[in-house]
Amino acid sequence: MKIELPQGSFLTSAEPSAPVILVAGGRPPADGWLKQVARRYPLWAADRGIDACRSAAVVPEMLIGDADSGSLESWCWAESLGVPLVRHPVDKDLTDLQLSLQELAARRPGAEVLLTGALGKRFDHAYSNVFSLWEANLSDLRAIGLADEVEALFLLEGGQSFHADLLESPVAISLLPLTDECENVNSEGVRWPLHQALLKRDHPGGICNRLAEGSHSVDVFLNKGLLGVYFCWNENGL
Length: 238
Description:
Rossmann fold; six-stranded antiparallel β-sheet; alpha/beta; 5 helices
């Protein structure tokens, strides 16, 4: 699968399908960044994500949620434009994002999904968003990761390779084990490459790398586990 973002192109060896951008209710992406992404890919919004869509003047294909966090003005804006709305009760077991992922899987099984507006602000929300996306990947969707103009986390599972061609140089590149262990991790294009490394979740050792001199690309492969390939472009935006 491949996703083109303003910061560059990001590719894994998984089979390609149709990418969808799901705008959640965390730190909103910059209007210009979201506009560029929306020119290339369809957007869905999860509750407060509609505020980011309205701010950037991009119309999502679907709006899902309980309408308790997105502004009334933005919900009315979406309804006035004919955006299909899927409303849920405020008292529910699942988050708006989890319900949106379920809706997307039902309507577009096998679709690739990238979350934006899913990082920043509250840590518990960001943590839940990462693993909710991975849970969706284990069912009927293909998880790309989470991204905005400030940072990105791409999900890479065992047996897959990852390649990034970067138009903007990140200030930090980190490899984050999301399972107990990630085995035989290899990385190239960075200042401190890895060769058949073992990365452990309870002892992170792949933090705060950077591009090698003259490099504009990053390659990562792992044999087993679930790995987050993290980029930060602007620490002041965190």
